């Protein structure tokens, strides 16, 4: 942990009280000049720090210690290389470039803000600064390409369990890649992959996930009523790092064995659409209403149309039309 991160942690733990530069230097075993440089760096990245002569420094508006070091301290998964950026275009976009350049499996990129986050079908993924966790993991799986979508299902289970651990709140999964809290989307997942034409398998896959940890200051805009967050108006300090680490731990444990049966039942148990009327939306087809019946052994959503015909969906999406079970 560098001096900047150590100073930030000390200010957060100070609870908004003043801490003198001398006390910070003694506590961290660094020079007063190093403390001053760290304060200047923190202010440059947007931290609100008040400095008063003969009193010292204090962090205004609370704080959230969110960095690679903070996540690495809590992550128990070996073989991972975790990096952190305050702002990127998109964690998936950056990791795809690193994958093409030969970066190893287990490369993890975490960001506090995305300027051009993407969801499925090229849609924009709202990634406001200071309220979310956005991360991607580079994988080099040794299985056939048809299993690539299962990475998304695995990530949904890992994400749901991580949210429940840090918040104590029960989650649901809306097939195939959304995590819900009280019916509102608080997490989305996008897995992108490159095919190895010689083997027919995957050269690499990048799994990206974004969590809404707190509500954005300006509200959800056009997403109002659809999007939500884990902690509402504000997240307790340290929760973003804790959430990122818990997700990495859950995901990596399941991925290392990649036994579909190890997460199939968890995936089924959290399905929000099963037993409800849905609208099936597939590319190249008109939307159709149906009733979601369950998830089969291949993680396909089984739906039944009004004429009694059933279909197992491997791609596309569904929109829940009513919340009541049929």
What does this structure look like?
The protein is α+β, with helices and mostly antiparallel strands and 326 residues long. It has eight helices and 14 strands. It has helices at residues 3-13, 21-28, 32-44, 68-74, 91-100, 148-167, 239-257, 260-269, and strands at 49-52, 56-59, 81-85, 107-111, 132-139, 172-174, 178-181, 184-195, 202-212, 277-281, 288-295, 301-304, 310-313, 317-320. The chain has a seven-stranded mixed sheet, with helices on both faces. Helix 1 crosses helix 3, helix 4 (68-74) packs across helix 7 (239-257) and helix 6 packs across helix 8 (260-269).
Give me a quick take on this structure.
The chain is of the alpha+beta class and 326 residues long.
Distance between the termini: 54 Å
For the residues shown, what is the average pLDDT?
A: 89
Estimated helix fraction: 25-40%
In DSSP terms (H or I, runs of 4 or more residues), the helix count works out at 8
**Which outline best applies?**
elongated
- Compressed to H and E, one letter per element, the order equals HHHEEHEHEEHEEEEHHEEEEE
- Global Rg: 22 Å
Strand order of the biggest β-sheet: 3-4-5-9-8-7-6
Query: Spans of 5+ residues with little confidence (pLDDT < 50)?
Result: none
Multimeric state: single chain
**Percent of residues in beta strands:** 15-25%
- Main beta sheet: 7 strands, mixed
Number of strands: 14
Structural class: alpha+beta
